[in-house]
């Protein structure tokens, strides 16, 4: 349905766009003395494709049918961003802003309304750490790996509570909340943002004081490409001990054992110390000799302390796992970021700076669980995992609780706080480009999601905006419907959705910054 619409719109707008394209380029060059032409890529530039593809992280949006931007501006400074905003407005072009490019639905570099322009922030990625004040200013084109590396250069006992994958961009990630392996101790990334630099729809550069607390609240989790272009965040760093402990214990289980252990985990996490983070990756293992389905569950943890205390806590709260000292590795927090990103042991910290990412086709969905899932329900999950023949189909269960329970739902747009037992991410990954494969895996994950309905949060069934999922609903093209947006909006933001709409109405009433799932303004009539 959507791909068809894409192609349709694309071909009709092509002719008219040629002129607009020229006018737009002239506008950009006239706006600016900052040699902007060195950072403007159109399809006639030989490096256009490589610049576009460099930060595409989902091969589903890397095909010949994917709509491509008319222009990519790899801005070097604020003036380049301001000029692009102004000229796009003048010539009626949509804008997409890209930081790390990890958007699950490719919204940072694909637009259904064409022609469009991509502002790519890859060149704006300075990380400046102030150890004495325990703060950092980071430009939003920085990846999380670059942020962690920059902090570690100055201190091994300061950290920032943001995501696990080092190539995720600070721009999109923090705009959507930012969960991490220290969230049970410190909450999420947006709970530690203390200032920001934003370019608004009028091209003004705003900081926390000049944007006001409503807008500052909204940009901390209300989703990217909605309120303006965030150029930089000011982080409040958090203390971590010099030694932390990690483990990744894999259990290959018959269906029966898997059910028991995973079922028990749901009760154990309620008792976990805030220093202990826990996640389970669940996927299908090879069948055993009798041809029985085997489920593999990798119990992965980061503990903010040494191994001895960890072992005694685990003995108290989750003895069924049978964790032993040999499973555990002590290291610094920065080394744990390398470990969790699954680089080989003892890799140099330099791997955090790499933007290389192996390409695959990917679909993800999310859920929040508020009551333990009954044992019987797991059987249906194992069955579905075992039926799909694919490179990887998995569920990730991430324990909430701890500090997350103490932060009010309305304190930032991210509402999944007290009452959340754990989060689920469903993911399916494959390598072959084919319409059949895409259709097959799309329907597989939708069916699993539907199967899970009775076992997850209700009214609304919550979802995490950073695991963007257009199946939850999309805005109308061309005009805005509050009612339509409230369907996906309340899933991502619960009651915060209304406040986000009010902020949006105040700062961008004409809905210049938008995409299929951006907060709409209220109509002015
Ligand atoms: C392998 C992998 C691991 C992940 N791990 C985690 C995790 O541990 N925790 C977690 O919370 N999430 C995680 N995510 C999800 C990730 O946080 C989101 O996909 C996030 O939106 C990506 O940000 P980005 O800058 O890389 O993406 P982009 O695609 O560049 O941007 C995402 C959205 O934000 C907008 N945007 C980007 N930059 C700006 C800006 N400067 N100003 C305004 N809008 C902007 C874009 O237009 C787009 O709408 C993971 C994703 C992947 C693929
Ligand atoms: C792209 O081509 C145009 C026209 O030749 C040129 O002005 C511009 O500098 C090129 N862009 C880059 C990044 O080289
Ligand atoms: C996109 O396609 C190009 C080749 O056309 C390839 O080199 C690149 O790895 C692909 N990237 C992704 C994420 O699929
Ligand atoms: C801490 O921040 C304040 C305010 O920004 C600044 O004046 C001061 O110099 C900083 N302290 C140090 C030690 O850098
Ligand atoms: C945990 O172990 C599993 C099974 O060996 C492996 O696939 C996974 O990559 C490991 N995870 C981490 C974080 O090391
Ligand atoms: C990693 O380094 C530590 C300490 O330098 C060493 O004891 C250990 O054997 C190394 N591990 C691997 C897998 O090389």
From TrEMBL:
Entry superkingdom: Eukaryota
Any GO molecular function: FAD binding
InterPro entries: BBE, FAD-bd_PCMH, FAD-bd_PCMH-like_sf, FAD-bd_PCMH_sub1, FAD-bd_PCMH_sub2, Oxid_FAD_bind_N
Swiss-Prot/TrEMBL cofactor(s): FAD
Keyword Signal among record annotations: yes
Signal peptide region: 1-18
Domain FAD-binding PCMH-type: 65-240
GO terms (BP aspect): cannabinoid biosynthetic process
SUPFAM superfamilies: FAD-binding/transporter-associated domain-like
One matching Pfam family: BBE
This protein's UniProt keywords: Disulfide bond, FAD, Flavoprotein, Glycoprotein, Signal
Family: Belongs to the oxygen-dependent FAD-linked oxidoreductase family.
PANTHER family recorded: OS08G0158400 PROTEIN (PTHR32448)
The protein, known as: FAD-binding PCMH-type domain-containing protein
Organism: Populus trichocarpa (Western balsam poplar)
